[in-house]
Amino acid sequence: QLQLVESGGGLVQPGGSLRLSCAASGFSLDYYAIAWFHRAPGKEREGVSCTSRLGSSPSYADSVKGRFTISRDTAKNTVYLQMNDLKPEDTGVYFCARGPAGAAMSPWEYDYWGQGTQVTVSS
Fold this sequence. Notes:
Elements: E1 3-7, E2 10-12, E3 18-25, E4 32-39, E5 45-51, E6 59-60, E7 68-73, E8 78-83, E9 92-100, E10 112-113, E11 117-121
């Protein structure tokens, strides 16, 4: 059964860090792009970062460049999002999703989604 399961969310103070995980089952990450999306309260999902199987450099939204890092662990079939220097505006639900190799960060390119993990940045 094809599945994406996110974990690692939580409550953190501004300036803190979290590492989100996206564990895939039922398919190999090697053949797909995986992206992280952020849905802030009352807003639509927005792309945060994506990594493509093509080996090209990962992409990041301007709002997270220099703070977030996406990575893959092929052996664990898992994608991570290291989030540093978190800000209150990073609060929301983070989803990982699977798309075709070479996909960018548009939600409509992605066909399978995880259930999301909540990140709250607050003092």
